[in-house]
Design brief:
The complex is a heterodimer of chains A (about 425) and B (about 325). Chain A contains 17 helices and no strands. By secondary structure, chain A is an all-alpha fold. Chain A has a single domain, classed as Formate dehydrogenase/DMSO reductase domain (Formate dehydrogenase/DMSO reductase fold, Up-down Bundle). In chain A, helix 9 packs across helix 10. The longest helix of chain A is centred in the middle third of the chain and has 34 residues. The mean pLDDT of chain A is about 90. Chain B has a 5-stranded mixed sheet with strand order 14-13-12-5-15. A two-stranded antiparallel sheet of chain B has the order 1-4. Chain B has a two-stranded antiparallel sheet with strand order 2-3. In chain B, strand 8 and strand 9 form a beta hairpin. The chains are: A mainly alpha (about 425), B alpha+beta (about 325). Chains A and B meet through helix 6, helix 7 and helix 12 of A and strand 6, helix 5, helix 6, strand 10 and helix 10 of B.
Chain lengths: ~425, ~325
Amino acid sequence: MIEIKNKSLVHDLTPEIVSTSRKWYFIFGIFVIIWAVGIYALVQQIDKGHIVTGMRDNVVWGIYIVNFIFFMGLSYAGALISGVLHLFKSNWRAPVIRFAELITVISLCIGPFFIFFCIGRLDRLPFLFAFPRIQSPITWDVIAIITDLFGCFIFLYLSLIEDFAILRDTTDITIKPWKKKLYRILALGYLGTEKQYKILSQAKNIMAAMIIAIAIIVYSVLAWIFGVTLQPGWHSTIFGPYFVIAAVFSGTGLLIILMQLFRKIYRLEKYITKKHFINVGVLLLIIAAFYGYFTFSDYLTKWYGSVKMDKILIDKLFEDYYLMFIFANYLGILIPIIIVGIPRFRTIRNIVIAAVIALVGLWFNRYIIVVPTLESPFLPIQDFRMDFVKYSPTWIEWALTAAGVSIFGIFMMLVSKLAPLVSISEMEDSEDNRKP
Amino acid sequence: MVNDKSDKSRRKFLKNIGTGLGAISIGGASAIAGNKIIGSSGEKVRVLTAEGKVVEVDKDALKELKRETNERRETAREGIPNRKFIMVIDLAKCANARKCVEACQEGHMLPKDHEWIKLYSIQDAEHTAPYWLPRPCFHCDNPLCVSVCPVGATYKRDDGIVLVDSKRCIGCKFCMTGCPYSARSFHWKDPEAEVPEDHVYDPELNIPPVEGTVGKCVFCADKLRNNELPRCVQACPMGALYFGDLVEDAITNGAETLRFSETMEQKHGYRYLEELGTHPSVYYLPPVNRLFDYDSGMEGLSEQDRKRYKDTGPRDAKK
């Protein structure tokens, strides 16, 4: 039997587990509609072929791949943030760490689907396992993502066990019998004895250290899919660390946005305070500085020299992609730094705005890494079909992108029905109510 | 090891007796494959072998091959022994007649917008002269497309040819981003090619094109098996394309046969984008003492093709 000293914790952190609000159904419905439109788009694409996308022979990877990198980045960032917060025992981490863990697992489940949308023969997907070739970075990626999926699921589950046990034993709130039954199974007989507590924390520490390492390796592998090619703009030695930093940047941004959203929806103002926003905001500031530094050094070296293909690419970025470049690589980095860096600007609202700009900016940063390079191959594109010269995503691709975002929301909302989005056990520990 | 060896000898045998018939093969093959002893009906039929000989066999010895046979997919992975195929393109002779493109598209049942051999209008620098550059697949000796393929759908053979097995390809398009020469194209929609009923799929010819897979120039490996020149080489009215064998040190455009090493030495042959380290099997002879001037390549083009070179090329001369 697990004793919770602070009774209000269980009550405050489980509003959606106890009952479902009308608002929940409304938002959920909107997400499901967006998702359904995405499914319709997917059916169109399977029926008519990839011709319905904006991808053509030069730009063979469009926003599907952009979304893939983006979601995988969010996932690895979640892993890194939760791992680091856990290992360093930051005393303010308690209300935010569960969000980071959820970002990790949910994005990781969504990301690979964009690869499935992108490949021409979905029916032959099992060939990746039937005829694998270890020379190919895609095979590395398959191995890496599967490893990461297991690691992150285990870490999330370990961190949930205590909460499941609390929900199993609590009498302060009324929980439906089937859920009680489920918690009994999921809690694995955890009773909060000293020995169990010790084993669980050790396991969490080991997994936290492991997923940090896995996240760095896995996202580097993803970066090398681009880095190993000879294409101008991709063939870069810093792509591994650059991608990892960019991922953490986007993940931190999403963390801030989710904190604000669920703080408002679940009225968690008492638990997620301005202090948390500033702390995660400072994390965003530090990462933004590193990320800006990497971006600058990558483009500076390309621009300063005079290698023909690099020059063609840079010219393209500053002509055809001027606004996008300015937004992604100037505003997307500088605005978060300014907002968080100057104490006067540090309100919750401003930090959330900075996070949104960072997140959207990073998506466009991915776009201008993937698309302009493919539009400037070594042999010039000579074509009378303008769609082969310049890529523009079709509604099918946008619909599936929106579906990816909405399924993230759907997963988040479903999880909120089963598990507290702010960890009860972590909150207990942080309030020092319970001695290990 | 033993298995491998016997497997090879079986393939060799099959090759020798000529499974090139497609729909039918001689029953001996199935006997070798260890099926059953063939009875004799006494009734004889005449069949044509791959070598063009007419032979008479027992009717019961005939066995219909399934269209979905994988025999060719396996044999196509081995090159023609003791060969290293190369192509030499004399840029001084190219007048952008586009006959190579047409012959290739016809031979491989490609949609009109798929060009396995493509003609580029290139101007290297502002003050240099433009020229026409036919670009087949370079069949690199260090092919990045092969390295990055996750399922082994594209492979390099002993004779230097890089092929794609369109029954294996999953369409991830990584090879297309890997290839620095844009030599590969993707079937974005159903190509709607009609192949004969009895056609056996063979990556050496690589028809029919399959939706959702990647295709590219195959150096007409099927023609090479029969000691014929690739379709583009045969079709070129200017004799600009030479094909040959590095082992024999000989190249030919059908009309004249040259020593490869001498040609390289005398005409200063080079490979395109050598600095990328892909080691192409296609060599170029620079456009000196041209037979046609650049502008003549614009004559006789369709409206679309004229638009293509006017609107989008030559890029490199700018700035």
